TrEMBL record:
GO cellular component terms attached to this protein's record: cytosol
Protein name: Dimethyladenosine transferase
Taxonomy of the source species: Bacteria, Pseudomonadati, Spirochaetota, Spirochaetia, Leptospirales
Annotated positions binding S-adenosyl-L-methionine: 28, 30, 59, 79, 104, 120
Source species: Leptonema illini DSM 21528
Keyword Flavoprotein: no
Amino acid sequence: MYPYYSRDRIQADLRELGGAIRKSMGQNFLIDPNTIDRLVRPVHEALQTCSEPSVIEIGPGLGALTHRLIEYAPVTALELDPMLATLLRRQFEGQANFMLIEGDARRTLAGLTAPVLCGNLPYYITTELILESLSVPGVQHLFFLVQTEFAKRACAKTAESSFTVFLRNFGEVKLLERVPASCFYPVPSVESSFFTVQLYEERAPAAILEKLLRMSYRSKRKKIRNSWRVGEALLPVETVEDLAPSAGIDAEKRPEEIAIEAYHTLARLIAANVVVDPERHA
């Protein structure tokens, strides 16, 4: 039986190793078994659609999701905290479906492949980890537990942020469930949410779309034309303005008022009409 539904057991095992919960790393452990069951269910359903099911799990913590996921597929767990890595080894030693890689997932993801990737992401590097996850070879389904405010932004139906637009370039984004703070130990100050990205073929070249979004969201209070004209010209401004109507973009509107798909269309048009320096980063 999974040992870490108990707050006392969590404290005792960490104390035995001479450590404690590290709030600086955003450590809040799932301890509600019903919630864990509900979160694992859609991941399991995704695995059933894969010809060679396997999972990469970012930030397994104490193994709340891991202990269920290994029932269905091989799991490669990426854990940064050495103490948690020790407890994971103790718990899953001898399990054929479990492999632990200790280190920062922003670096250890390189070279890994799996059709399903999931994680309970620390708030301070949530965006970075999601963007890294998009480039994992062979990945088809992403599942993330994050702060609700972030999940709402990621799952928005309108272009309220550049991240929303960028993420929709890679897949269909859907909010699955809200998770109350009481389901964690320690209890966080904010609610969390579980969302998924079902990946499809990129709608537009990512490098060009990123530059376009950086230019467009320099100031959400400005008309998008004015945003394009201030700051560094990451793309040729005159060309962007000339192509915008063909993408259905009214340059007199603010960036969040533009349809998500219109940004993708404009990025494709730019790609077809402009030679962009591949070494130049937004």
